[in-house]
Amino acid sequence: MKKRIFLIVLDSFGIGEAPDAAKFGDAGANTLRSVSKSGEFRLENLKKLGLFNIDGVDYLDGAEAPLGAYGRFSEKSAGKDTTVGHWEIAGLVSESPLPTYPGGFPKEIIDAFSEATGRGVLCNRPYSGTQVIADYGAEHLKTGDLIVYTSADSVFQVAAHEDIVPPETLYEYCRAARKILTGKNGVGRVIARPFTGDETNGFTRTPRRHDFSLEPPAPVLPDFVKSAGKDSISVGKIYDIFAGRGFTEYVYTSGNAEGMERTLEYLKKDFEGLCFVNLVDFDMLYGHRNNVDGYAKALTEFDRWLGEALELLRDDDALFITADHGCDPGFTQSTDHSREYIPLVVYSKDIKPRSLGTREGFSHIGKTVCGLLGVENEMSGESFAGEIYGE
């Protein structure tokens, strides 16, 4: 049994193509391999815990005597995005894919959204988030029309200049969109994308992004932890991914640096239960922009932070480090997420170091967290707690 568990998701940190990667157009994708070629890549602490000893990581030298338990997991859910990845980690397998809109959203959705907001719509097709404001920002300033776009993921994104549409108003527009996008059009996330700037100097997205997620259709890890009377804490966008359900406390962050800082604060606090963390910069700033060096540098900064975090772990704590999907910055065929294995590294002072091998299903992770916290649950997956703490 553990009193506190820190479950940290390195958003998009895949470690090699999944068995069904070709079906998703991702044959050959390997986020870890791509970033390991960068001169910015130095993961001393993750190496010590066993990251490089995981199945398939044969291009890096593993630790002679890893300190943690380590393995790789393939996804059962029909998708490769943030929502289904986190849901599956938390014990919910999505049998059907969430809807995507490669041709833009249907007229009835756009008309309903325009009626709800009183504003017109620009773009309405898949687009890069930075490029869409470069291409449509000036017209938005002139007309006040909202920039609506999507991606390969199940998302409805709304960009607006903060001087034209204050963030709180943009959030209300997105809440209206969330009510419209249900049933067969129930996208995983509606995302508010505020930006600033002008046509002369360029437009820049601000940190005031906000996600409005589809609510999980069944109880998930945070629900079970909270129902057991324990603390269920969210750091970063975790709260939004689960539509705010199942948490006793949450804090938003502007990026990795603040996410790591808030997590250190929780490491120093006394609580009993789960601290569920998402570090989004790997995906948002580097994976989607094919920035190999930026991704590698961000991982190196996390690894440096990890050294400090390990010093703060108490005797009755456990640390889980994993990912939700891939987003290989060196995979030049695409800037979208990639269908990859995710890594898992588990560490505590009393752990039995060992390889967990290769397993099907992210949900074993959440199941194990519940097992270690003594939380009854009805989640998918099998706990491996006995393997890493048994005789």
What does it look like?
The protein has 391 residues and is an alpha/beta fold. It folds into 2 domains: 4-95 and 216-389, 3-Layer(aba) Sandwich (Alkaline Phosphatase, subunit A); 107-212, Phosphopentomutase (Alpha-Beta Plaits), CATH 3.30.70.1250. The protein is 33% helix and 21% strand. It is built from 13 helices and 14 strands. Strands 10-9-11-1-12-13-2-14 form an 8-stranded mixed β-sheet, with helices on both faces. Strands 3, 4, 5, 6, 7 and 8 form a 6-stranded mixed β-sheet that branches. α6 links the parallel β5 (155-161) and β6 (189-198). α10 packs antiparallel against α11 (292-312). It is globular. The protein starts with a strand and ends with a helix.
Mean pLDDT over all positions: 96
Shape annotation: globular
Order of helices and strands: EHHEHHEHEEHEEEHEHEHEHHEEEHH
Q: Which class best fits the helix and strand makeup?
A: alpha/beta
Radius of gyration: 21 Å
Helix content: 25-40%
**Second rung of CATH, namely the architecture of the largest domain:** 3-Layer(aba) Sandwich
Low-confidence stretches: none
At the first level of CATH, what is the class of the largest domain?
A: Alpha Beta
In total, the number of domains comes to 2
Write the layout of secondary structure elements.
Elements: E1 4-10, H1 31-36, H2 44-49, E2 69-74, H3 82-89, H4 107-117, E3 121-126, H5 129-143, E4 146-150, E5 155-161, H6 167-180, E6 189-198, E7 202-205, E8 210-213, H7 221-227, E9 231-235, H8 238-241, E10 249-251, H9 256-268, E11 273-279, H10 281-287, H11 292-312, E12 317-322, E13 342-347, E14 354-360, H12 363-373, H13 385-389
Helix pairs in contact: 4-6, 9-11, 10-11
